[in-house]
Specification:
With 169 residues, the chain is an alpha+beta fold. Helix content is 49%, strand content 18%. It has three domains: 30 residues, no CATH class; 58 residues, Alpha-Beta Plaits; 69 residues. The strands form two sheets. It has a three-stranded antiparallel beta sheet with strand order 2-1-3, with no helix packed on it. α1 packs antiparallel against α5. The longest helix is centred in the last third of the chain and has 46 residues. The radius of gyration is 21 Å and the shape is flat. Bound molecules: zinc ion (ZN). The site of zinc ion has 8 residues, from loops.
């Protein structure tokens, strides 16, 4: 039976939590906050947005603040854990998502697009095509956001490296 540790909020498969060693485990209820994942700053921003976009309530807790990286733990209600895990997985799969997800156009499909394609479509096809364009645009915007976060992290890293080099030489 699946249990939840009331101390650290990790799921446990035995009475004793294998994560923190506590024996205060219980059968989880839908509203019980449950550990989802720990992620660094840039991914935390993206994950927050993804969860919010999908109506998944979450709590973000600072677990580590390094010189450059900030790490957060995410907690979601047990009843939403599966959805949240799938959002987390999709986030890490973003680079491939453009090709695998049939709700968005692949890069190749976009390269081969031609306005003339629209002429042969009926109303239903046009509507579906337009919907796919809109979700592709959203996905692109989302990836832009992610790369923006990564750019900021890289700029921080570069600055920090420059400072360290200066100190050492
Ligand atoms: Zn525990």
């Amino acid at each position: 039976m699946e249990l939840i540790c009331t101390k650290c909020r990790h799921l446990a498969d035995a009475e004793q939590c294998s994560y923190c060693g506590s024996c205060e485990t219980k059968v989880p209820e839908a509203e019980d906050p449950c550990f989802l994942v720990t992620v660094n700053g840039p991914e935390a921003a993206v994950l927050s947005e993804r969860l919010a976009r999908n109506g998944i309530p979450f709590r973000k807790q600072l677990v580590h603040m390094g010189k450059i990286t900030v790490t957060y733990a995410f907690y979601v209600p047990y009843g939403k854990l599966e959805d949240a895990l799938s959002e987390n997985e999709k986030m890490w799969g973003d680079e491939q998502a453009m090709g695998n997800d049939n709700t968005v156009f692949s890069a190749e499909e976009i390269d081969e697009m031609d306005i003339g394609n629209l002429d042969s479509m009926d109303l239903e096809e046009l509507k579906a095509y337009k919907a796919k364009i809109i979700s592709t645009l959203k996905e692109i915007k989302f990836q832009e956001q992610r790369w923006k976060e990564r750019t900021n992290l890289l700029l921080d890293m570069r600055e920090e490296a420059e400072n360290l080099i200066e100190d050492l030489s």
